[in-house]
Each structure stands twice: as C-alpha cells, then as structure tokens.
Amino acid sequence: MFIRNCLPSLLYRLNVPFFLILAWVVVFQLLRCIFFGYQYFSGNADTPTVLLQSAWHGLSMDLSMASYLMLLPTLLLSFTARKWLWYLRGMLYYSYFISLIVSLIVTADLEVFKAWHFRLDTTPLYFLEHPNEAFASASSSPLLLLLFILLILITLISLFQAKIIKHLLVSFEPSSPWLTPLLFLFITATLIIPIRGGLGLAPMNQSRVYYSSDNFANQLAVNATWNFFSSAVKGTGRKNNPFISMSPEVAHTRLNSLRPVSSGIVQIIEPKQKINVLLIIWESLTAKVVSSLGGLPGITPNFDSLTRQGVLFTNLYASGDRSPKGIVAILSGYPAQPTTSIISFPTKTASLSSLPRTLKEHGYQNSFYYGGETEFANIKSYLLQHGFDRIIDHNNFASSEKNSKWGAHDHIVFNRLLVDLNSQKTPFFTTLFTLSSHEPFEVPEKTAIPGQDIEHKFLNSLHYTDASLGNFIRQAQTKPWWRNTLIVIVADHGHPLPKTASDRSSEFRIPMLWLGGPVEQKGIKVDTLGSQTDLAATLLDQLGYDSTGFSWSNGLLRKGRIPYAFYSFNNGFGWVRPRGTLVYDNIGKREVESSGNLNPNDKETGKAYLQSLFGDYLKR
C-alpha cells in the first residue's frame, strides 16, 4: 500500500530532469537565434534560411549539453524521498550559477566569432596572462552592447529556469526511500546516451552537427557552451610548448637544413591536363604484411601483383598511429603530434592546406567514401572544411549492407564507388577510406587465414580488403575513366601486428603504390626514404601545381631532397634517416631505441623537428 501511494509522487519527480532538459534545449535554440542575429548585422551571415537547418542539425549537441547540465540535479533527486526543500534551494542557486556561466560564454562567443570566425574555445583565455594585449583586443569591441546583452541573458535565463524549477518542485510529495534512489541512479546513468549523442561508436563532437560546405552554417549548428567546455577538457587553450629543447633560432636552422631548394622533379606520370586522382587509404596496412616489401607472403596477393603495374614506394613511414592523424598527414601533409591530434580542433585544421582544397581551386570535384561514421574523431568536420563536395558514409548504405561493427564492409564501399565513378564529373579527386581491417577485424566472407587469435584475425581482415581492392581494380581497368586516372594506395598507419619484428619503427613502415593509366613507368620501385606527409607535395609536384602551402611535406621525387621521416606516438617520437633510426621518449627524455649509425646531431635534429612542429600547432 505504501509503495502504491508513493508511486505517483515518485513518477512525478521524473518531470524534473525531463522538463529542465527540454527547457535548456529551448534556451540553446533561442541563443542560436541571437548568435545568428548578431552575426547577420555584423555581416557574417547572409541568409536566414540557414538558421532553420542549423537549428535542426545542432539539436543533438543542444540535447547533449542540456543533459550534461542535468547530471548532478538528476543524481541528487535520489535523496528527495522525504525532504526536498534543500533540493529546491540548491536547484535555484545551481540554475543561477549555470545561467551566469552560459550567458558569459554565449556573450563572449558573439564577439569572438565576429572577429576570428570560430566559435569560442579556451584560446582567448591565453590573453588573461597578458592584460595589455587583452585590453587592446577588447578595446575595439562594443563593450556596452555586450554588457547589455550579458545582463539581459543572465536575467531572462535565470527567471525562466527558476520559474520552471519552482513549478515542478512545489508539488513534490513523499516517495519511497528505496525506490527513489534506485530510479534516479538509473535515470542518471541513462543520460550518458544523449550526452554521447546516441548509441553509435562516435561520441558527440563537432562533426555530428556539421552538415554543409558552408563554414558559417556548420558553426551556427555548434552549441557554444558545449564547444567551450569541450575545448577546456581537450586543452585547446594550451600555449606552452612542452618539447622545447633548444632556442627557437637553433631549431629553425636545423629544420631549414632539411628543406633545401629543389632543382627539379623526376616525373613518373604522363603530364596530361587535369588527370583524375583516386586516393585509397587502407586501414592499418603495415609493410610487415606486404611480401613485395619483405613482409609475410600470401596476405596481400592482389596488392603485390599490382606493384608490377605501377610505382611502389618502398621506404615510407606513417606519421602517427591513429587514423585521424593519418588522414591529416595524407591530405594536408601535416605531421602527427605526440600528445594531441589537430583534427580535434576545427579552428586549427581550418588553417591547414590540403589536397582537396588545392585541387578544388583547379576545378576538381571532391568526394570521400567511407563505410563507417565520418563523425568519428571529428573527421567529418575536417572533410567539410577542406572542400569535399560529397561525403558517402554509413548514412548512405542500407541497413542490410552495414554488417560490420563499424558500418559497411570494404567490398560494398568499393562497389558503390565503382558505380558512382562511371557518372562522376571530371576531373575528380576521390578518396576512399577502408575499415574492415580495423579492430575487431570482422570479415563478411569465409576465413582465408585460419586462427582465432587476434593476430590471425588481423591478417585475415587484411586479406579480405586486399581481395576487395583487387576485384575493384580489375573492374576499374575496363572503365573509360581508367586511362586518365591516377590511383594512389597508401595506409593510414601501420600496426604492432604481426609480431615479426621487435623494433618500434617497423610498426610505422607502410607501403604506397601509384598505378593507373597516367603512370608512365610501371613495375619500378622508389627506395627513397620518406614520410606519409610527403604524399601531398609529391602529388602536386607531379600534377604541376604549386605546393608552397605544404611546408611540412617533402616531395619524394624532388631532386636534391634530404631524406628523413618523423613519426610520433603517445608522448614520444621516431626519427629515421638513411643511416639509422632512433626512438625518443619525451617523458623520460631519453632514447629508448636506436639502430644504425646515427650521430648526436641526428637526435638534436629530430628534437628540433618536434619542437618546431608543436610550436606551429600551437600558433594555429
């Protein structure tokens, strides 16, 4: 009887998180309208129709932020079975505090975007360390207007929240002292779903709300409060370089010694006008499984066969150990950082040069194919920033085609690409990113390499992707566009498996193969040492386009180039020269591995490279 009597009051308490989350979503949508209006009258927005689209696409991030704000209040409802006056008072103070914080962020965001064209993150906090610069920066802002907006927002949001809280809590009645905590512990746990943006693999990030090639439309969809706290957690505002080991002048001199003026290039493709480019980024394709590079036999037979039809680069190293870092290294020629990933920060990636953006300036149609979620690790925001006109991802495949944990398997994506390229406008720059050789190494076909341990599953997944690639190339060779299409196959990164070598550098060595109609010299190998980051400049050199903006990309076919490769992992880096390699631990500040005949000057040059790279990253 007691439980029956308490049940209505217990269920009534569910109104608190539901209606307060809804209230915050409404507030965030109205704040988006204010942001649009401010930018519209500042000349940064041109059409009101984008507001509706951005409001819809930004709804999931609004819900995520609202759920964050209600985590603690929902949890505390567990203790309101008998007494709740303390909860009413606490919620009012909490709502006033949150209203103040949100209003401050939103008001600052108005002027930050107007001046810098990116949403507020923790970068402006750097100016607090330099009051003179902060005052100088703020002096041109309409401070009185911003102060007025701030006061209005604080007042209206606080009153709105307080009214809802009082209305909800005034009707509280006693509830079950043991069912109440159980229920609200459960409800608190379920808030992780809207906080993450759903049940998908990728948690909430800016890519979830990006939907357009128009930067303002994407920025309008972003929730300012979510964006600020996300950057605070990630540490965007960091301005100190932890890798300084020498003066900037010495580091700059050492870096420049790696960049001599080129005396020309070796041309390996027929210099046709506007040749198409198809870039295939192969998940986890380590050189250790490619027999034509001395790796295990029988894992990638199709790739090995194709090396006789094109140009194989045999001495290439991945820049990092994760796909997001590899994508930026390939498309922007920008090296991976040890302790962070630039793709997490759209403000920084917007400043990078890229192959799709450069080729678009020359009339290319850009598209990106991936069977999984491009929102993962913020990849989608980078792709949209850099001029990909079409993105084909898991949203474009039927449910029956998505039989992998990550999405659609590789043969399905290759088949889709083959169909689409037959009607693709030319010239095109198309990128396909495979996924089946990612953990958990699922394949949709009969096992070719038996074994239930993780290594054999990995090898089997690579064998499957190799078969999918081989089938695609055989069909592509019969298409009219093949004669005028350069195909570049490269890995996003290497892999610790298989355990066929003990040195760290072997985990980063990857293959790269160029083939297709425009390739003049077939069946040759380029043994020059290089990095994944060098692909961008190499491709632009071959196409006859300017690569000046790709300062970290060292064209592999330039005459007189200095051969080297840099790679980074979790707070460490590797430095590879023709005469040897070293692996350096940034935390212990010591070499943990070396081979060959490197001298102390090589180690200092590697440290100078990292210092300069991270300094460049911080400035972006």
Automatic annotation (TrEMBL):
MF GO annotations: hydrolase activity; metal ion binding; transferase activity
Localization per Swiss-Prot or TrEMBL: Cell membrane
Residue intervals passing through the bilayer: 12-38, 58-79, 91-110, 143-162, 182-202
Positions that bind substrate: H438
Active site residues of this protein: S323
Record's protein name: Sulfatase-like hydrolase/transferase
Residues reported in the UniProt entry to bind Mn(2+): E283, D492, H493
Membrane topology: Multi-pass membrane protein
